[in-house]
C-alpha cells in the first residue's frame, strides 16, 4: 500500500460516538446522516483511538456555517491537526473488514502518535483515505 504524508489543520466537526460493544460505526453514521438536511457536498470522517477503557470511534461530518449543533442534537468536536501518513483504500464498502489490518500494517512502519486518533476520510463512494497520526516522517520533497 503506497503511503504519502500530509499535514492537516484541525477540522471542526459534528459527531456521534459509536457504541463499539453494540451496533458500532455504521449505526453512528446512520444517526449522524439522519440529522443532516442533505448529504450532498458534505465531508465525512471516522475517528478511531484506543483508550484505557477500550476504544473510541466517532462518525463525523465537517461543520458548515448553516449547521446548528444544538438544534440537530449533535456533539461538536475537532479532528486534530498535525502530520499523518495517508493511504488510499479503493472499493471501501467491500473492504471494510480490512481496515484494522491496513492500519496495523501502516503502524508497523511509522512513528505513530498515540495522542491523536486514526482517521478514515470518505472521499467518495469508491475511495477512502486512511490517515495514521505520526510524530515524525521522512523529508517531503518540494513539488
SSE layout and pairing:
Elements: E1 4-8, E2 11-17, H1 24-34, E3 44-51, E4 54-62, H2 69-72, E5 75-79, E6 82-90, H3 99-108, E7 118-122, E8 127-133
Antiparallel strand pairs: 1-6, 2-4, 2-5, 3-4, 3-7, 6-8, 7-8
Distance linking N and C termini: 22 Å
Q: Please report the number of helical segments.
A: 3
The description of the largest β-sheet is: 8 strands, antiparallel
Mean model confidence by pLDDT:
91
DSSP helix fraction:
10-25%
Rounded to the nearest angstrom, the radius of gyration is 15 Å
H/E element sequence = EEHEEHEEHEE
The global form is globular
Which architecture does the CATH hierarchy give at level 2?
Alpha-Beta Barrel
The domain count comes to 1
Report the uncertain regions.
Answer: none
Number of strands: 8
- Which CATH first-tier class would you pick? Alpha Beta
CATH superfamily: Regulatory factor, effector binding domain
- Structural class, by secondary structure, is alpha+beta
Portion of residues in beta strands equals 35-45%
> What is the spatial order of strands in the main beta sheet?
1-6-8-7-3-4-2-5
CATH topology: Multidrug-efflux Transporter 1 Regulator Bmrr, Chain A
Notable traits:
alpha+beta; Multidrug-efflux Transporter 1 Regulator Bmrr, Chain A; 3 helices; 8 strands
Summarize the structure.
About 15% of the residues lie in helices and about 40% in strands. The chain is α+β, with helices and mostly antiparallel strands and about 140 residues long. The model has no long low-confidence stretch (mean pLDDT about 90).
